[in-house]
Amino acid sequence: MERVTISLDEDLLGQFDSYLEKRGYSSRSEAIRDLLRDRLEQEKLAEDKAEDAVACLSYVYNHEQRELSRRLAKTQHAHHHLVLSTLHVHLDHENCLEVALLKGNTRDVRKLAEATMAETGVRHGNLHIVPDDMTRSHHIDRRMHSRRFARATSS
Questions:
Q1: Which of 14, 81, 95, 131 sits CB 3.0–4.6 Å from 91 for a disulfide?
Q2: Which residues form the Transcription factor NikR nickel binding C-terminal domain (predicted)?
Q3: SS3 annotation, the chain
Q4: Is residue 77 a known part of a binding site?
């Protein structure tokens, strides 16, 4: 690992330290690494440079909407190569929350998510997408951060 020095004004450093405390980081370095990874992931996605991605698609829909449940299931079956898993929760007599974990070509994942969220009766849709190469290259660092977090919250 290479050491880098940065200069921050006192106000920005104070805000950053508050952020660290709220998020449970044990070091400024780990927080900066996570912020950089996040920003680089977003840039890669914005520039359409991520060939493959993993994603979490969540949406609330009215299951009373005519044929909507059937259409959603049919769409997922038609794209079974992208859908890893789904979670279905009944919120009340009319509304359901569904979460779909997706993996595959970034454009295909995004198209499936957009088509799902555009269905009449689907509302509150959200797609969180991460370039697949970013998940593999930093697996060890994120696992170490998780252990630190577990220790910090168990005290």
A1: 95
A2: 54-129
A3: CCCCCCCCCHHHHHHHHHHHHHHCCCCHHHHHHHHHHHHHHHHHHHCCCCCEEEEEEEEEEECCCCCHHHHHHHHHHHCCCCEEEEEEEECCCCEEEEEEEEEEEHHHHHHHHHHHHHCCCEEEEEEEEEEHHHHHHCHHHHHHHHHHHHHHHHC
A4: yes
Length of the chain: 155
Please report the domains of the chain, with CATH numbers, ordered by start residue.
52-133 (3.30.70.1150)
CA dist list (Å): 31 to 22, 36, 108, 126, 149: 11, 9, 32, 25, 12
CB 50 within 8 A of CB 108: no
Cα separation, 126 vs 121, in Å, equals: 15
* pLDDT of the residue at 27: 87
For 138, phi then psi, to 5°, come to -125, 20
Phi, psi for residue 47 in degrees, rounded to 5:
-90, 5
**Per the annotation, does 96 bind a ligand?**
yes
pLDDT tens digits, 142-154: 555 555 556 555 5
